[in-house]
């Protein structure tokens, strides 16, 4: 299974390795592995554990948080209780990578719009600018379904701590960051119903988004094992 570990150990290049070994097939509904790996640090070293195994009791989980969405509603970890969700970090005035990331999040919204088990979560990295009315206007402009996709603002330190120390979304492994350093990343993170990280994907790459969709379907089937 050594090749499987390579598949998931190289963040944004995982989809490239997937294509080399398997060939990319957009019609594929499940991954070529029966269970997705688990991750617990910024190195994204895969841990091939059985779902609900005892080892997971002390494994890394996304901690509790409290933020506010585009409708002015409090969003906490309980909002995502018993849900699979995909998360990213953006800001509404971003002229670079964010529009493409939003477009690809919209693809996920469309793919799973009728699936109550799947939610989307986008954190503003400029919460001091992205107020509730601005997020609401952005959501309306982009076609965000409020029941499916939460655009959140709140305490800047909490958002940055979540991004760097809980979701591990940045690429600068081993580089010390302060709260003054800007958080900017194209990565999407897949989180399971038990708040464990199960994958990281390049939010700018359509092939990577297709792999994410495939992996979500695999994650949904884990109850069989």
UniProtKB/TrEMBL annotation:
Residue numbers binding Cu cation: 94, 98, 184
Pfam families cross-referenced by the UniProt entry: SCO1-SenC
A GO molecular function held by the record: metal ion binding
Cysteines paired by S-S bonds: 94-98
Keyword vocabulary terms for this entry: Copper, Disulfide bond, Metal-binding
Gene3D superfamilies membership: Glutaredoxin
Domain Thioredoxin: residue ranges: 56-221
Entry superkingdom: Bacteria
Protein family: Belongs to the SCO1/2 family.
Full protein name: Protein SCO1/2
């Amino acid at each position: 299974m050594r090749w499987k570990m390579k598949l998931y150990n190289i963040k944004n290049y995982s989809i490239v390795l997937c294509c080399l070994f398997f060939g990319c097939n957009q019609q594929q509904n499940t991954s070529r592995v029966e269970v997705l790996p688990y991750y617990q640090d910024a190195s994204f070293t895969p841990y091939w554990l059985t779902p609900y195994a005892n080892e997971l009791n002390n494994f890394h989980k996304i901690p509790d948080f409290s933020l506010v969405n585009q409708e002015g509603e409090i969003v906490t970890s309980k909002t995502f209780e018993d849900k699979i969700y995909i998360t990213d970090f953006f800001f509404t005035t971003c002229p670079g990578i964010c529009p493409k990331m939003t477009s690809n999040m919209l693809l996920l919204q469309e793919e799973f719009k009728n699936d109550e088990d799947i939610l989307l979560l986008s954190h503003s990295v400029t919460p001091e600018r992205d107020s509730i009315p601005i997020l609401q206007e952005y959501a309306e402009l982009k076609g965000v379904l409020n029941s499916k996709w939460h655009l959140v603002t709140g305490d800047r330190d909490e958002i940055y701590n979540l991004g760097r120390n809980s979701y591990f979304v940045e690429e600068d492994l081993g580089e010390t960051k302060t709260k003054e350093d800007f958080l900017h990343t194209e990565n999407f993170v897949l989180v399971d119903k038990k708040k464990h990280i199960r994958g990281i994907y390049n939010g700018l790459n359509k092939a990577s988004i297709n792999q994410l969709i495939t992996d979500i379907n695999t994650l949904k089937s884990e109850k069989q094992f």
